[in-house]
Here is the input.
Amino acid sequence: MKYLAYKIKILKLRLTKLRIEILLFGIISIVSIFLIELLLKKIPALNETSYDLGQVYLKLCYSYFSSFIFYLLVVHFPKERRKAKLHRILHNKILYIRRETTILLNTLFKLPNNNIDAENITNDQIKKICDLINPHLPIPVNINGTTVVSFPNLYAFMNLRTKNIKALINDIFLLNDVVDNDLMQGLTNIQDNLSSFFTFDITNIDNGLVLFLSDINIHGNTNLQVLSHNICDLNFETKQLVKNLIKEDWDDYSFEYTHLEYEGDRASHNRF
Here is the structure.
C-alpha cells in the first residue's frame, strides 16, 4: 500500500508539472471521447453536416489524446524523473554560486572596514563601498577560517571567484534539459555579466599591473566605481537564482529524490 500511495503521489506531481494548456486539452479530449462514444452516438444527428463535424471532432480528440499519452510517456515523465535524480546536483551548484558571490561581496565589504552582511546589502551601500576600495592594493583573504591567502590585488581575487562561478554555471548548462526557464535566464545573465565585466587580463606584474576590463584600460582607476553597477547586478541575479530554485517546487523533487536514493541503497544492500 505504501508503494502504491507513493506512485499515486508521484503521478499527481508529474501531472501538476505539465503546462496548464496541455493538461487542459488532454482532459477535454478524453472527456469528449467518452461522452461521444458512450452517449452522443446513441442520439441521432440533426443532419449530415452535424454528423460529419462530430466525426471530425472525435478524430481530433483521439489524435490529441494519443499524442498526449505519447508526450507523457516519452518526454514529460522521463524529464521529471531526471529532474528528481539530479535534484541534489542542481540544488547544490546553485547554492554554491550564491556562496561564491557572498564570499566575493563579503571580502569587498571588509576592505574599507565595513561589517555589512551580503544578504542585506543595498545597491546604494555597494556603490558607496566601491568608491572607497583601492583595487590595486594586495589583499589577504581568510580561507576556511584558518588559512590566509594573499592576492597581489583585488582583480586577481575577483578572477578566482568569478572563474569558480562560471565553472559552476557551465556544469549546469550541461543539464539544460532539466533546468527551469527562469533559472536558465538567470544563469545566462550572470554568465554574460561575468564574461563581459569580470574577466581581467593581468600582465606585466613586475613592472606594474596592466588590467583590462573588456576593451577599457582600468589601470588608472583608484576605486571600484566602474564595477559597482555590475557588482549590484551579480548580487541581485544570484539572489534571484535561489528564489527561482525555491519557486520551482524543489520540495517535490526532494521527496522523490529521497525515495530513489533509499531504493538505490536498498537494492545495493540486497546484492550482497
Summary: The chain is about 70% helix and 5% strand. Residues 48-85 form the longest helix (38 residues). The longest strand covers residues 139-143. Residues 204-218, 264-272 have pLDDT under 50 and may be disordered.
